[in-house]
Amino acid sequence: MIIMIAAVAENNALGKNNELVWHLPNDFKRFKALTTGHHIIMGRKTFESFPKPLPNRTHIVITRQKDYSPEGCIVVDSIEKALAICPENENSFIIGGGEIYTLGISFADQLEITKVHHTFEADAFFPKINTLEWKEIKSAFNPIDDKHKFEFTYQTFVRI
Protein backbone atom coordinates (compact mmCIF):
# COMPACT_ATOMS: atom_id res chain seq x y z
CA MET A 1 0.00 0.00 0.00
CA ILE A 2 1.20 3.51 -0.83
CA ILE A 3 0.52 5.89 2.05
CA MET A 4 1.09 9.64 2.01
CA ILE A 5 1.90 11.01 5.46
CA ALA A 6 1.96 14.73 6.19
CA ALA A 7 1.32 17.40 8.78
CA VAL A 8 -0.83 20.03 7.09
CA ALA A 9 -2.13 23.39 8.33
CA GLU A 10 -5.68 24.64 7.78
CA ASN A 11 -4.44 26.53 4.69
CA ASN A 12 -2.65 23.35 3.41
CA ALA A 13 0.72 24.80 4.45
CA LEU A 14 3.52 22.29 4.95
CA GLY A 15 6.46 24.52 5.75
CA LYS A 16 8.62 27.47 4.88
CA ASN A 17 12.28 27.64 3.86
CA ASN A 18 12.48 23.83 3.94
CA GLU A 19 11.42 23.68 7.61
CA LEU A 20 8.23 22.89 9.48
CA VAL A 21 6.63 26.00 10.98
CA TRP A 22 5.25 24.18 14.04
CA HIS A 23 6.56 21.70 16.60
CA LEU A 24 4.31 18.77 17.56
CA PRO A 25 6.30 16.13 19.49
CA ASN A 26 3.45 13.61 19.47
CA ASP A 27 3.20 13.89 15.69
CA PHE A 28 6.92 13.10 15.37
CA LYS A 29 6.35 9.99 17.51
CA ARG A 30 3.41 8.95 15.32
CA PHE A 31 5.45 9.51 12.15
CA LYS A 32 8.25 7.36 13.56
CA ALA A 33 5.88 4.60 14.64
CA LEU A 34 4.15 4.45 11.25
CA THR A 35 7.23 4.68 9.01
CA THR A 36 9.89 2.68 10.88
CA GLY A 37 10.83 -0.47 9.00
CA HIS A 38 9.37 0.77 5.71
CA HIS A 39 10.42 2.51 2.49
CA ILE A 40 10.03 6.30 2.63
CA ILE A 41 9.89 8.38 -0.55
CA MET A 42 10.83 12.04 -0.52
CA GLY A 43 12.21 14.86 -2.57
CA ARG A 44 15.81 15.98 -2.28
CA LYS A 45 15.00 19.11 -0.28
CA THR A 46 13.00 17.10 2.25
CA PHE A 47 15.88 14.65 2.62
CA GLU A 48 18.33 17.52 3.09
CA SER A 49 16.15 18.98 5.85
CA PHE A 50 17.01 15.97 8.06
CA PRO A 51 20.15 16.20 10.18
CA LYS A 52 20.90 12.60 9.10
CA PRO A 53 18.98 9.74 7.47
CA LEU A 54 16.11 8.48 9.59
CA PRO A 55 17.00 5.18 11.28
CA ASN A 56 15.46 1.85 10.27
CA ARG A 57 13.91 3.08 7.02
CA THR A 58 14.85 2.68 3.36
CA HIS A 59 15.25 6.19 1.93
CA ILE A 60 14.24 6.80 -1.69
CA VAL A 61 15.09 10.32 -2.82
CA ILE A 62 13.62 11.85 -5.98
CA THR A 63 15.75 14.50 -7.67
CA ARG A 64 16.57 15.91 -11.10
CA GLN A 65 20.22 16.36 -10.06
CA LYS A 66 22.22 13.84 -12.09
CA ASP A 67 25.15 13.27 -9.70
CA TYR A 68 23.22 13.34 -6.44
CA SER A 69 24.14 10.30 -4.32
CA PRO A 70 23.83 10.73 -0.55
CA GLU A 71 25.11 7.79 1.45
CA GLY A 72 22.50 5.25 2.44
CA CYS A 73 19.86 6.38 -0.07
CA ILE A 74 18.38 5.12 -3.30
CA VAL A 75 18.20 8.02 -5.76
CA VAL A 76 15.73 8.14 -8.66
CA ASP A 77 14.43 10.81 -11.02
CA SER A 78 10.66 10.14 -10.94
CA ILE A 79 7.84 9.14 -8.63
CA GLU A 80 7.18 6.13 -10.87
CA LYS A 81 10.75 4.85 -10.42
CA ALA A 82 10.52 5.42 -6.67
CA LEU A 83 7.29 3.44 -6.40
CA ALA A 84 8.70 0.61 -8.54
CA ILE A 85 11.41 0.03 -5.90
CA CYS A 86 8.89 -0.38 -3.07
CA PRO A 87 7.83 -3.90 -2.08
CA GLU A 88 4.28 -4.63 -3.25
CA ASN A 89 3.24 -6.49 -0.10
CA GLU A 90 4.34 -3.79 2.36
CA ASN A 91 3.37 -0.25 3.26
CA SER A 92 5.54 2.43 1.69
CA PHE A 93 5.28 6.10 2.64
CA ILE A 94 5.48 9.28 0.59
CA ILE A 95 6.74 11.84 3.10
CA GLY A 96 7.13 15.06 1.07
CA GLY A 97 7.67 17.76 0.21
CA GLY A 98 4.97 19.71 -1.58
CA GLU A 99 5.98 18.84 -5.13
CA ILE A 100 6.37 15.14 -4.30
CA TYR A 101 2.95 15.09 -2.60
CA THR A 102 1.41 16.64 -5.72
CA LEU A 103 3.10 14.03 -7.93
CA GLY A 104 2.29 11.17 -5.58
CA ILE A 105 -1.32 11.74 -4.61
CA SER A 106 -2.68 9.97 -7.70
CA PHE A 107 -0.70 6.83 -6.73
CA ALA A 108 -1.63 6.84 -3.03
CA ASP A 109 -4.03 4.34 -1.48
CA GLN A 110 -4.24 6.08 1.90
CA LEU A 111 -3.52 9.47 3.47
CA GLU A 112 -2.30 9.85 7.05
CA ILE A 113 -2.78 13.54 7.77
CA THR A 114 -2.05 15.53 10.89
CA LYS A 115 -4.30 18.56 10.46
CA VAL A 116 -2.79 21.46 12.41
CA HIS A 117 -5.66 23.77 13.40
CA HIS A 118 -3.96 27.03 12.50
CA THR A 119 -2.92 28.89 9.35
CA PHE A 120 0.71 29.65 8.59
CA GLU A 121 2.75 31.63 6.11
CA ALA A 122 4.42 29.00 3.93
CA ASP A 123 6.13 28.29 0.64
CA ALA A 124 5.25 24.57 0.42
CA PHE A 125 1.69 23.26 0.37
CA PHE A 126 -0.13 19.92 0.40
CA PRO A 127 -2.52 19.32 -2.53
CA LYS A 128 -6.22 19.80 -1.84
CA ILE A 129 -7.87 16.55 -0.76
CA ASN A 130 -10.72 15.89 -3.19
CA THR A 131 -13.63 14.54 -1.13
CA LEU A 132 -15.01 12.84 -4.27
CA GLU A 133 -11.86 10.66 -4.31
CA TRP A 134 -11.07 10.35 -0.59
CA LYS A 135 -13.13 9.33 2.43
CA GLU A 136 -12.08 10.05 6.01
CA ILE A 137 -12.34 6.81 8.00
CA LYS A 138 -10.71 7.79 11.28
CA SER A 139 -9.85 10.92 13.25
CA ALA A 140 -8.48 11.76 16.69
CA PHE A 141 -8.42 15.31 18.07
CA ASN A 142 -5.46 16.53 20.16
CA PRO A 143 -5.84 19.69 22.28
CA ILE A 144 -3.23 22.30 23.12
CA ASP A 145 -1.05 21.23 26.05
CA ASP A 146 2.34 22.06 27.57
CA LYS A 147 4.18 20.40 24.64
CA HIS A 148 1.81 21.35 21.80
CA LYS A 149 1.15 25.00 21.00
CA PHE A 150 -1.57 24.16 18.44
CA GLU A 151 -4.60 21.88 18.37
CA PHE A 152 -4.32 19.12 15.78
CA THR A 153 -6.26 16.13 14.51
CA TYR A 154 -4.92 12.86 13.17
CA GLN A 155 -6.95 11.92 10.09
CA THR A 156 -6.89 8.76 7.99
CA PHE A 157 -8.33 8.88 4.47
CA VAL A 158 -8.79 6.02 2.01
CA ARG A 159 -9.37 6.27 -1.71
CA ILE A 160 -13.04 5.80 -2.61
Summarize the structure.
The chain has helices at 25-35, 44-48, 79-85, 98-104; strands spanning 2-9, 13-15, 39-43, 58-62, 73-76, 92-96, 110-116, 124-125, 134-142, 152-159.
SSE layout and pairing:
Layout: E1 2-9, E2 13-15, H1 25-35, E3 39-43, H2 44-48, E4 58-62, E5 73-76, H3 79-85, E6 92-96, H4 98-104, E7 110-116, E8 124-125, E9 134-142, E10 152-159
Parallel strand pairs: 1-6, 1-7, 3-4, 3-6, 4-5
Antiparallel strand pairs: 2-8, 7-10, 9-10
Count helical runs: 4
CATH class: Alpha Beta
Task: Outline the biggest β-sheet.
Answer: 8 strands, mixed
How many E strands?
10
- For the record, the count of structural domains works out to 1
CATH topology: Dihydrofolate Reductase, subunit A
CATH superfamily heading:
Dihydrofolate Reductase, subunit A
> Nearest-angstrom radius of gyration?
15 Å
Average pLDDT over all residues: 97
Shape: globular
Care to describe what's here?
This protein has four helices and ten strands; from the N terminus they run E-E-H-E-H-E-E-H-E-H-E-E-E-E. With 160 residues, it is an alpha/beta fold. Strand 3, helix 2 and strand 4 form a beta-alpha-beta unit.
